[in-house]
Amino acid sequence: MIEVEVTSPIIDMLNRYGFATVAAVAMGYFIYFIYNYITGNIIEKLDKAQMTVVLLIDRIRMLDNDLIRLRSKLKTVLEMRENDRTQRNNKNSNSTLDR
Asked: Does the pLDDT of residue 98 top 80, yes or no?
């Protein structure tokens, strides 16, 4: 029987080119893969998130404006009630003096 020695392609490349060369090529591929992943997937998701943040900021500004309007309306109503009370008190005090 003839024994056939089977070596993996990685071991064959290590024997042929050396560890440093194979490691440099593998690192280059890893950097290329990470760069493509970041530019393809993550930047797209960051753009969507940025748009969402802009929309949320706009809604917060709208709510802030609404709160300012409501405070001014409430202040006006409270002032009107206070003025009405003082006018009633003045009328009551004047009417008792007329008697």
From this structure: no
| Sign of the CA dihedral with 13 first, then 15, 17, and 23 last | positive
Listed residue (24, 22, 27, 20) closest to 9, CA to CA? 22
Query: What is the full DSSP assignment across 14-37?
Result: HHHH-HHHHHHHHHHHHHHHHHHH
Q: With contact defined as beta carbons under 8 Å apart, do 14 and 5 qualify? A: no
The length of the chain in residues reads 99
| Residue 76 in tokens | 């006006």
Query: Tell me: the pLDDT tens digits for 49-70?
Result: 999 999 999 999 999 999 999 9
| CA atoms 33, 34, 37, 39: torsion sign | negative
C-alpha–C-alpha distance, residues 92 and 84, integer Å = 12
